[in-house]
Amino acid sequence: MSGPLELAERFGTPLYVYDLDEVDAARRELFAALPDGFELFYALKANPHPGLVRALREPDPAGDVPACRAEISSTGELGAALAAGFTGADCLYTGPGKTPGELREALGAGVRTFSTDSVTDVRHVGEAAVEQGAEADCLLRINSATASATTAIRMTGTPSQFGFDAETLCEVLPELLRTPGVRITGLHFFPLSNARDEDSLIGEFRQTIALAAGLSAELDLPLRFLDIGGGFAAPYGTAGARGRYPRLRGALEDALDEFLPAWRKGKPRLACESGRFLAGTSGTLVAGVVNVKTSRGRRFVILDAGINTFGGMSGLGRLLPVSVRVGTDEELEPGSLVGPLCTPGDVLGREIGLPPLAAGDRVSVPNAGAYGPTASLLAFLGRPAPTEVLVRGDEVVSVSRLEYHRSYDSRPRPW
Ligand SMILES: *Cc1c(COP(=O)(O)O)cnc(C)c1O
């Protein structure tokens, strides 16, 4: 008796439930889809809950699935990674706007690997490292000139704040190699998220590997580490299953044999990244129906959870709509699923199929384990953050809630 709806009886709504067994299963699947020796970075932005992150840091209980490393992009995520038991050395610190202050903090915590996006970024890493008597490994993030896959979210091939433009890297590389305090150790790619299918993922990875090998050879660029990014898919607030990649392992091995033949000897070391695939399917959001009303012939189901709870990254223009279930398969009728906020933008689904619902009912949103609370407009309109419950099978592991408060500390924060 510990399904999400039963847990909502105990802990109230809105309630997130994350099942760690499901996180383990996703990690096992993803490692199995990659060639032996690949490292896997968990992108904390998908879900920085320390208990969930800890599950990914620990080797599988059966001992045959490696631990993940951590991909972080802020001091908050650094704190979450450390709280989950990662060391600084386990972390890859990414992002186009790393400030000198956060670099200092990251280096102080033992972070030594940074993905860098510009000459200034590399210089900032070097300056912070020199200041601390350390040397930092910098991966150069590459914004390749072309792109192959079709995806919901594309971050490359166009002008971007991310990465070095591949075609002009040669102009700045000598300066990068001379920057005090840093060693240029390899390349980082993250061209897409949530790939449409296995073929697009394979196509993109093949292109990435070819480009990395080409750049390294043409520019005499050190390539000790190559992070080829991700794109592993998971449903988001709708029914469905994680992406399946039965051919990926073989395709990656072929591409690596062709372009980087020393890879089996660890030259270079290789890595992938994932957020949503690892965390997304572990989570369920349970919301309460506060009210059902009809306006000019249209039905509105008003929940206690809106874009403040499951934002759908709505501020980023990523539209849901979500699907909700009550338990059984009722006839669906059109209606709009909205949240409690005083803005007409608080819509989780406009004129979608909804079961018959009344005030006091509870609904569950499947596959809500990634880009949940921390991707939402948490503070907007001041409602409390949702409760988050971690379970492992039938056992409740932890119950917590994010809190925010106003601080009147007027000292400037380190920049
Ligand atoms: C967001 C992000 C990820 C995770 O993306 P998912 O689609 O959740 O797997 C991985 N790497 C980087 C650099 C990111 O910015």
Automatic annotation (TrEMBL):
Keywords: Pyridoxal phosphate. Residues 25-279 form the Orn/DAP/Arg decarboxylase 2 N-terminal domain. Its cofactor is pyridoxal 5'-phosphate. Residues 15-369 form the Orn/DAP/Arg decarboxylase 2 C-terminal domain. PANTHER family: DIAMINOPIMELATE DECARBOXYLASE (PTHR43727), GROUP IV DECARBOXYLASE (PTHR43727:SF2). This is Type III PLP-dependent enzyme.
